[in-house]
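Consortium newsletter contribution from the modelling node. Members have asked for a concrete example of what our holo predictions look like. Here is one, prepared for the flavin-adenine dinucleotide complex that several groups have been discussing at recent meetings.
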Amino acid sequence: MFLKFNRLWKESPLKSSYDAVIIGGGLHGLAAAYFLASRHNIRDVAVIEKKFIGCGAAGRNTAIVRANQRTQENIPLYKEALDLWPILTQELDFNLMFYNCGNLNLAHSDAAMKAFRMNVATAQFHGVDSQLVDAKQCKELVPALDITDRPRYPIFGGMFHPPGGIVRHDAVVWGLARGASKLGVHIHQGTEVTGIGVKHGKVVRVDTDKGRIQTTRVLNAAGAYSAGIAFKCLGQRLPISVLTIQAMVTQPLKPLLHHVVSSGAYHAYANQTLKGEIATGAHMDPWPNYTNQSTAHYIKHQAEAIGEMLPCLRGVKFMRIWGGLADMTPDMAPIMDGHIPVAGYYMDCGWGYFGFKSSTVTGKYMAQYVATGECPEILKPFRLKRFEEHRLMGETAALVDYTANN
Ligand SMILES: Cc1cc2nc3c(=O)[nH]c(=O)nc-3n(C[C@H](O)[C@H](O)[C@H](O)COP(=O)(O)OP(=O)(O)OC[C@H]3O[C@@H](n4cnc5c(N)ncnc54)[C@H](O)[C@@H]3O)c2cc1C
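And here is the predicted structure:
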């Protein structure tokens, strides 16, 4: 007897023309497609995915969401993203498994506490719930922490962000794909974009290995491959490096970690999944790379860091390890822009560590940009020309040296 599986989205033949073409069936591409169809009634849209949807960083991340970023340009975007999870769960009629368990970032020095103070003040100014907590409060939140001076980096306190948490990443991919497909969007898997045709300074065509598509609007949302596509198809150089991020999960354990906990000093973060596994991640590999392979270097680092941060996990077995690619800009903030170098060409890339938590809200605003041709106010700080104008954002401070990834 064969089981019959119903695809959540329809298979459709590749047409010779579409109103808009989206390169990449990751979170950003699918979200933009869904919002184009649902909010702007632009349904004649093709999502072109070279392998299968969610095969990139979309299906490889550690699913952490939060809004306590560092800079005032970023916080409103991430705040709206957090607010969107329950709305989308209902709208898509798909359980995205948003678990707002809260995020605790640990500080291991006075300097880190000072930096957290600034971070908390900026977040609170933008209406985001973020609190400074002392070491004792950290212990109350996560009893497994060792707040004595025994660990290599003793805990001075932390920054607690109650509305953050985790969302199931494949559910977001599948929910958006189903939602977009129901509204008429075509999802073409196993189809690679190979070129973008331009005439008189405007997009006229997208070339794929399965045929040519006439279109006047194309969104480059190809994650780690966005910069390569921009250069190969349009000769545009983007300030993006591609690096590998690795992650691991332990064997399932009884509930012991009720919040996401992270530490910049250890370069490690952890949360307990609904299955009981401890999902852990760390900093990106320091060398540019296009491989999803894991390294012994990372396994050793991660085991040591987690064992120091949460001593009760020493001796626990790691069950799986994987890697994914991250497209990283010099200021750790994304590039969202349009009409450069040619009219009708849009880009949404450079997401580094933060592209899961931002995906739905970015899809919403990039869809507005593609639909109207006008850059929404909230996206203006993320334009490419900030690099030319030396107006980089301080978003690096959301990660390096005092908080941990994601
Ligand atoms: C291990 C790890 C942990 C992470 N943890 C977090 C986290 O906890 N929180 C968070 O916010 N972010 C996290 N991230 C980052 C986040 O996953 C990414 O920023 C996000 O998935 C980027 O989404 P995307 O849609 O831009 O790219 P992707 O999901 O990578 O999608 C791009 C798609 O484009 C396709 N493509 C490429 N070239 C072509 C082409 N020529 N033609 C057609 N299709 C093409 C690819 O196959 C791919 O499917 C993590 C990343 C990794 C790797």
